[in-house]
Amino acid sequence: MNGILNVLKPAGMTSFDVIAVARKITQQRKIGHTGTLDPSAVGVLPICLGNATKAIEFMIDKDKVYRAEMTLGVTTDTQDSSGKVISSHPVDVTNNEIVDVCKSFIGEIAQLPPMYSAIKIGGKKLYEIARQGETIERQARNITIYDINVIRIWDDISIFGENSSTVQYATKKVLFDVHCSKGTYIRTLCNDIGEKLGCGGHMSFLVRTRAGNYDINSAFTLEEIMELAKENTLSSKLVPVESVFRDYDKVQLNEADTAKYNNGVWIKYTYEKENKNVNKRVYDFKGVFLGIGEVFDDGRGTFLKSKKFFRG
């Protein structure tokens, strides 16, 4: 089974939990996901099966779109609603101020990864260190926020704690869509927006609506995937791996060049005169997708060589 399965990850499961369930359903040994989602988050999690796992390195770099709910007035140690409250402040800001501050984060910004994350420093994951009550120095990373669209703002009461120890806080909720680059932590974005507003904030809900070329409208729940497997129709729902590279120009080789390309031989590139030094979607003379090729000029002429081979 080769291809990409667009999974709708449920809340309460890690991305690796989803992989484990998908592996059991598909009986597929070669399987991997294209970017983790926090256990509390839901949404698009493309999973690669078989030879499509070779495309993961290309898919991780793609941009993402999220719908998030931000709660202003309360900060937590995890920057989301699963953590412990570390501060609370009155939300004395107008809706226009909230929108303006959200918009101020559009562009390339430096973001400090949260302690509760899977990033490894010194061989240990940050969340493992955080659970021991420690905080260590992290390096800020450059990320890009392409757009933020505030959908709705409303007053609310947020409750933290359990049973008799619950505490209520007067807060504002902000529902917004954000289009961002890989490596962006939306809970950190919420925390930073709250900090800039002077009242603090955290992420109270998150759904990933798009990851690269795959959106939530075409995603399958794990229950739907189980039913498709029982009906032996799951293979028909897999997205061909070539869809990852739909923005690349297509090159279809003749029969002689197909044989050379399949054997790793550089091909004298005569298929077009423009667009040198770029990647191409390469197909054999019968129209079968072979993989990604790189067009380059080495001084002796222009050639095409295989960069990633997917067939076989």
TrEMBL record:
Annotated ranges, domain Pseudouridine synthase II N-terminal: 23-186
Entry keyword annotation includes Isomerase: yes
SUPFAM superfamilies, alphabetized: Pseudouridine synthase
Gene3D superfamilies linked: Pseudouridine synthase
Superkingdom of source: Bacteria
Domain tRNA pseudouridylate synthase B C-terminal: 187-245
Active site (UniProt): 38
EC number: 5.4.99.25
GO terms for biological process, alphabetical: mRNA pseudouridine synthesis; tRNA pseudouridine synthesis
Keywords of the record: Isomerase, tRNA processing
Record flagged with keyword Cell wall biogenesis/degradation: no
Gene Ontology molecular-function annotations: RNA binding; tRNA pseudouridine(55) synthase activity
Protein name as catalogued: tRNA pseudouridine synthase B
Native source species: Ruminiclostridium herbifermentans
Gene: truB
